Amino acid sequence: MQTSDMLDKINDGVFFERIFGQERDWDAALDARDSPAFDADWLESNEKLAVGYPVDETATMEVREAVFKAVFRLTANPDLAAYVSDDFDLITQANLHGADIAFIRRLWDSYVHGIFPT
Q1: Residue 89: which residues within 8 A CB-CB, separation 6 or more?
Q2: With contact defined as beta carbons under 8 Å apart, do 95 and 6 qualify?
Q3: Phi/psi of residue 54, each to 5°?
Q4: Are 71 and 11 in contact (CB under 8 A)?
Q5: Domain range list for the chain
Q6: Separation between Cα atoms, residue 45 and residue 72, nearest integer Å
Q7: What would the pLDDT profile of 14-46 be if each residue is shown by its tens digit?
Q8: What is the superkingdom listed in this entry's lineage (predicted)?
Q9: Cβ-count burial of 40 within 10 angstroms (0-12 exposed, 13-18 middle, 19+ buried)?
Q10: In whole angstroms, what is the distance from residue 24 CA to residue 86 CA?
Q11: CA dist., res. 1 & res. 91, Å (int)
């Protein structure tokens, strides 16, 4: 998926609404992400990208900003918006480099199916 396609999806007004438009204890959801397994998988995926591919912050900055603003607008939770923005940094970097990392695929699939990954 091209970065422009991802931005179109993020900005369509529906993509994040399905996930973050509902009332939920987002702090508890973020706590669930702090599980050792999830945290280790996230960090390992980030490391694989950092070691194996050049980081293109310019390409991901627009996506990260759009994600943060959309999630913050829906939840007023800056921590949640930052976590989701970080997820989309991973997803965008993997897409840019054609990196096939199972954990990042699962992150993307969760968001596509309207589920906040924990």
Answers
A1: 60, 63, 64
A2: yes
A3: -70, 135
A4: no
A5: 3-112
A6: 25
A7: 899 999 988 899 999 999 998 999 999 999 999
A8: Bacteria
A9: exposed
A10: 20
A11: 10
3-state secondary structure the chain: CCHHHHHHHHCCCCCCHHHHCCCCCHHHHHHHHCCHHHHHHHHHHHHHHHHHCCCCHHHHHHHHHHHHHHHHHHHCCHHHHHHHHHHHHHHHHHHHHCCCCHHHHHHHHHHHCCCCCC
- The encoded tokens of residue 43 equal 């960090």
Q: Which two tokens stand for residue 103?
A: 């954990």
Q: Estimate to the nearest angstrom the gap between the alpha carbon of 96 and the chain centroid.
A: 14
